[in-house]
Write a structure and sequence with these properties.
With 212 residues, the protein is mainly α. The chain has eight helices and two strands. It is elongated, with a radius of gyration of 17 Å. The protein starts with a helix and ends in an 8-residue tail after the last helix. The relative contact order is 0.26.
């Protein structure tokens, strides 16, 4: 599972930036460990927020870029869906590895730490070429993108339904965040969607964003 987590972090690589959450030296108090329903609700919440953010956008609005080196809403949507599809497979393979609950004492980051770090837009990301969107963006209408994400989410949600919370928590691996468990890995996907939903809102707030 180590390779998986390094791939996860690469997708929000922060261009080598230091993140204060990585500097924790004392084990986190697991008082706010969330359950399986929280995880499922987080997937639904991030889907709903993204759908709301793009609903009704025109083709012109979807393809607007605040600057030549910035992504459009269409590109953000394409990247979200490509990432979820790829990482779902990585997570499934990683969870097939033997559990190692003896490492639980090494965990320093909480569930909330993981979510905050992933969604922190003060650290900019550079997507690997494998999940970089097309130059013009694939999507010309938001409904198609939402449909594609909904279909993709069915796969990972069905997989989560078949996992026990114990199994998620008993798979520990190393990452730039420090040791993390399988639940943290599964938090990454909706957290990644939340991160790019914030990016979409930034694009929409640009002063030159096309009027509806």
């Amino acid at each position: 599972m180590k390779k998986l987590l390094f791939f996860l972090i690469t997708t929000v690589s922060f261009a080598g930036a230091y993140h204060p959450a990585w500097a924790q030296t004392e084990p986190a108090v697991p008082a706010v460990q969330h359950g399986k329903q929280f995880l499922l609700d987080y997937y639904q919440q991030t889907f709903d927020n993204l759908e709301k953010a793009v609903s009704g956008l025109s083709n012109e609005q979807l393809h607007y870029k605040p600057a030549p080196d910035k992504w459009s809403v269409s590109q953000c949507l394409e990247h979200i869906i490509m990432t979820e599809q790829m990482l779902t497979g990585y997570i499934q393979k990683a969870m097939e590895q033997p559990a190692n609950p003896e490492r639980k004492g090494e965990l320093k980051m909480t569930d909330d730490d993981i979510m905050r770090t992933i969604t922190d837009r003060s650290f900019k990301a550079q997507a690997p070429k494998e999940i970089a969107p097309k130059a013009e963006g694939k999507y010309t209408d938001p409904a198609t993108a939402v449909k594609d994400l909904r279909e993709q989410r069915k796969v990972i949600l069905s997989y989560i339904e078949g996992l026990s919370l114990e199994d998620m928590r008993n798979h520990i691996s190393d990452s730039p965040f420090g040791p993390v468990d399988g639940y943290h890995s599964l938090l990454y996907l909706p957290g990644h969607t939340a991160r790019h939903t914030l990016q979409i809102e930034e694009i929409k707030s640009d002063k030159n964003f096309p009027k509806s």
